[in-house]
Amino acid sequence: MTEQERVRVAMIGCGGMARHHMQVMLRQQDTTQIVALCEPSPVSLEATHRIFEEAGVEPPPNQPDLGRLLADYGSQLDAAFIVTPHAFHHDQTKACLEAGLDVLLEKPMVMNAAEARSLIETRDRTGKLLVVAFPGSLSPQVRTAVKMLRSGGLGPILNISATAWQNWGPATDGTWRQVPEIAGGGFLFDTGAHMLNTVADLAGEDFVEVAAWLDYRGRQVDILAAVMGRLESGALVTLNGCGEAIPSCNSTVYVFCSQGILRTGIWGESLDLQRHGSRKLRKVRVPASMGVWQQFLAVREGRIPNPCPPEVGLRMARLWDAIKESAAQNGAVVRCK
Description:
The protein has about 325 residues and is an alpha/beta fold. The chain is built from twelve helices and 14 strands. The protein has two domains: about 5-135, NAD(P)-binding Rossmann-like Domain (Rossmann fold, 3-Layer(aba) Sandwich); about 135-290 and about 310-335, Dihydrodipicolinate Reductase, domain 2, CATH 3.30.360.10. The strands form two sheets. Strands 13-12-11-10-6-9-8-7-14 form a nine-stranded mixed beta sheet, with helices on one face. A five-stranded parallel beta sheet has the order 2-1-3-4-5, sandwiched between helices.
């Protein structure tokens, strides 16, 4: 790409995850130019400047007010990468789409289904691109699994069973991730959001009924979770989240079909298949991962379809709304809305 063809992006949020993405993006300067930052924290901004200096690149200007950033730099931008606390995702994404920018949005997409529907409407109205940066949906493992499930070769889905665990409670004490108004939930809506999204993506259909229990373990947000659900097709789903595990972080997802079993992880960290007549699961060969930012660029260029559009985010948001409603009623079965 020439200088003019590089994708010009604003980084909205410069916390730890954003800095991880920026380190990757700074190694792709032939395709990417980070034009501006939007970060109110001096500590995060200082850490971000160090990343640019280590890469031998002058740090871009910072405008902590998103409205002013879009007014001042909008004509110099093609896209925005939003990596901020969950409560800010809807308004920031809406503003960027309406400013004419394509958006790559960190997980979870939004706080609830109403916000998800709003972003879909904004995407449709503006004609801009919205990709949700869930590594599971963006992984070649989950994309391959989805193709296998939709092809019909494994037969209909009967059950899905997923588990995620991490020492999340102790690790996030004192951070915004345990502030309900900002985080929107606890373990199940943070690390566990990967599980909700990947299961929703693999299922490829809406949940119709959900029963859920959330245990806060003395904190302000959920730490443990058990969820049962039924899909439109009648397939049954169980989700188990433990955010109070020993120091660790892992997951597993099983999809049981009439003619086979798939096993993957909530981040798409693996893919194994056992077909009818086989004695064990075997690793499935998949293409190499393109990475989050590179996939976004590939979608913008029309080289691949959007692997994680806001419609997947809506499916997950409807599930999350039902989980909260059921848990508030001590596990009563609720209909997804």
